[in-house]
Amino acid sequence: MSDLPLRAQMAVALGRTAAKMSRLAGRGDGSVIGGRIGLKLDPELLTRLARDRKLVLVSATNGKTTTTRLITSAMTPLGQIATNAFGANMPTGHVSALAAAPDAKYGVLECDEKYVPLVLRETGANVVALMNLSRDQMDRAAEIWLLAGKWRKALEAAPHSHVIANCDDPLVTWGASTAKSVTWVAAGQHWREDSWSCPECGGPLDREGVDWGCRECSFSRPKPDWILHGERVTAPGGRTYELTGLQLPGRANRSNAVIALAVVSQFGVEPETALPLLAQVKSVAGRYTTVEHEGRTIRLLLSKNPAGWLEAFDVLQPAPGPVALSINAQGPDGRDTSWLWDVDYRILRGRPVWATGERRLDLAARLEAADVDFTLVDDIDQAVMAVPPGHLDVIANYTAFQHIRTRYGRVV
Ligand SMILES: [Zn+2]
Q1: Residue 111 counted as an annotated binding residue
Q2: Domain that holds residue 99
Q3: d(Cα 94, Cα 113) in Å, to the nearest integer?
């Protein structure tokens, strides 16, 4: 830190003070405000803070917070790691994360998909991990195609950055394929509704098993270096490892874990060392956390978009385990709830289901159309008290999730 120019040192110090005051005032962890003030005083602060460090950027529509956490955990043998653990995934958050760990030689930064070009340009990150792209509450299919196009330009201009990309996602593959060096990871693709046409030419994509290719041009699935199959992963040399020790549940987290293994092996951390460290991660920013309340064990699952709902369904307790769903439509959730119609809720048939949240009526209309029996309740408490003591899975979108998490005790 002491080799930063004076102006940058001041920017960091003032940013820290602002973050601290923001925390004292009870306004979150302060990383956004701290970073914002720092960048205002020194617009090149991110570049300066990134200098002389080995950085990883992690981006995707889903799983980036979890994967950032997994990579950070697996890199601990290398020493101190700077990371934006609380999901502040824009440059302001990156500045705060790096400023908070001035002596860390390594950094793992979750990056909003739209900021990948800017953050890559400013930090010259050594490794960029790209996992999946799908429509969400804000972006529809055409927008994610434009986004992948921006990744292509950014990676083409960053020949020193190595890319780790999920070759089971055609759009990610296209977005990554201008990079000078890529490790392809067959990490699986659960949600396919956004990849029926070729991002290169618009022709139809044919699929056969895990393989895919365009019928009209040469764009097709690259040969993977790492392969996830079920609960096992095959590394580039052909050795196979079990992922059964992971505490984070479901297919999506196995996919996040194999991406993490591929990333850390770039820094010389082999799977034998990395796997036990991945297995230590139990919950990430409240996701998958269970809380006890009045004899109920409530497990919190966050789903922000259609692909996220599939991931949550994948980890539900076996039927007929009860499920509560909570949907809000505040700023971070997107005001428009029409994406509810992209999710196939029929999988919930035969379970006791409670619907709540500010937009419970939208949810009710959707569940009714899917022939799912449900009970409409005013708040999550009513759902919790209505289920018999035992396990309850709660799936909620962003602000609904935060509300429930606060309601039952903010657990990390
Ligand atoms: Zn094509």
Answers
A1: no
A2: 45-280
A3: 14
